[in-house]
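2024-03-11 09:14:02 INFO worker-7 job=invfold-0412 stage=load source=structure_tokens
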């Protein structure tokens, strides 16, 4: 059967728990103990997608295995999820769980209801999360051969609990077919358009939360305020006292290209640092770490910003384009390795400031005084500025 179920007496790795909560259960209409509460995983119980985070872990820790991704995907979604879960398991203790959903599940358990984690994610991931939380009586998930999503999930739930015999918490359009068989559709972190569709098709609908603004979270992750560093690009044109219209346009374009490239790097850096950020008391609130910004759109946006910045850079001039490539290579190496090397990281960060001045000279074809750039490197490396420099990255 296309299902992995864990229930009954605890076994090694089993998600079953007999813990209860004293929370009052006032979160669902007409609560009945015989109505199961079924909860989806990605985007619902967690604010992130565990499969996408697994792919990021693979990129970071086993980069050569990326070459195997097409073959895994060609074997089907279920096999792909299984391979990612096997080769790049996520730390379930650090995932950004939705507090409102956890409270809802605890309230259901306190009311004597059966709680079920039903997900299209791989069973290894689902069982690990079930065991970690200890809130679910049963886990239904995809295996290496069967993908439990959409109609497949609906059919399994109807077979087990009957049509209308369960409430279903989820967040995505693919879940509409499951909501159609549920007693109550509980929407979590859902887009307004999806909420409207479900309300028009379903009598019992509960809105637990709405999706956070993508653009607001993206702007925060892209660190737009850090673009102020790129003002250094204007130093060569100011030093040469050449303020022609063409020079100014080239300098402004160079400023924008460097900003886009820097934002692309910030997005990638945060994705590479997901686990470390979630362990940090302040950084755990960043968009990716907190789950406010999804991994896949973040990766896509980082790629688009990087490509647009390079295209714009070579439009400004080949010299500037080459400098920007150097900047991307250095910052990429910094994200993957250099930032963990004492002293070397400070030197590299200082060089990036100098590189902005060199880029300004390349965009306007003005020579940069080597002595001036060396003096700038020395100044930013003074002990009093090191801490501020590191905080800015």
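2024-03-11 09:14:09 INFO worker-7 stage=emit residues=393
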């Amino acid at each position: 059967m296309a299902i992995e179920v864990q229930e009954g007496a605890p076994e090694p790795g089993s998600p079953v728990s007999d813990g209860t909560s004293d929370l009052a259960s006032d979160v669902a209409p007409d609560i009945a103990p015989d109505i199961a509460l079924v909860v989806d995983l990605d985007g619902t119980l967690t604010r992130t997608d565990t499969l996408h985070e697994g792919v990021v872990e693979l990129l970071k820790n086993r980069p050569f295995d990326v070459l195997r991704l097409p073959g895994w995907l060609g074997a089907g979604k279920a096999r792909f999820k299984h391979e990612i879960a096997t080769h790049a398991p996520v730390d379930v203790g650090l995932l950004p769980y939705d507090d409102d959903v956890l409270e809802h599940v605890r309230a259901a358990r306190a009311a004597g209801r059966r709680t079920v984690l039903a997900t299209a994610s791989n069973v290894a991931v689902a069982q690990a999360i079930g065991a970690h939380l200890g809130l679910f009586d049963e886990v239904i998930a995809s295996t290496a051969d069967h993908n439990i999503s959409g109609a497949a999930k609906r059919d399994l739930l109807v077979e087990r609990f009957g049509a209308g015999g369960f409430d279903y918490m989820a967040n995505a359009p693919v879940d509409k077919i499951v909501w159609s068989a549920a007693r109550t559709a509980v929407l979590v972190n859902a887009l307004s358009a999806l909420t409207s569709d479900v309300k028009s098709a379903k009598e019992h609908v509960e809105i637990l939360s709405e999706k956070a603004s993508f653009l607001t979270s993206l702007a925060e992750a892209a660190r737009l305020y850090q673009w102020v560093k790129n003002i250094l690009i204007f130093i060569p044109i100011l030093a040469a006292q050449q303020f022609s219209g063409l020079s100014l346009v080239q300098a402004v374009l160079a400023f924008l290209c460097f900003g886009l490239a820097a934002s692309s790097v910030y997005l990638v850096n945060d994705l590479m640092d997901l686990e470390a950020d979630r362990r940090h008391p302040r950084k755990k609130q960043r968009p990716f770490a907190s789950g406010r910004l999804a991994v896949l759109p973040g990766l896509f946006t980082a790629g688009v910003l990087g490509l647009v910045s390079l295209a714009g850079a070579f439009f400004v001039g080949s010299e500037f384009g080459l400098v920007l490539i150097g900047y991307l290579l250095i910052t990429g190496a910094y994200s993957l390795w250099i930032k963990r090397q004492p002293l070397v990281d400070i030197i590299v960060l200082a060089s990036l400031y100098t590189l902005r001045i060199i880029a300004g000279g390349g965009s306007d074809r003005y020579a940069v005084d080597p002595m001036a750039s060396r003096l700038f490197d020395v100044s930013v490396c003074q002990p009093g500025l090191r801490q501020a420099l590191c905080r800015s990255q």
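2024-03-11 09:14:09 INFO worker-7 stage=report msg="The two ends are 50 Å apart (CA to CA)."
2024-03-11 09:14:10 INFO worker-7 job finished
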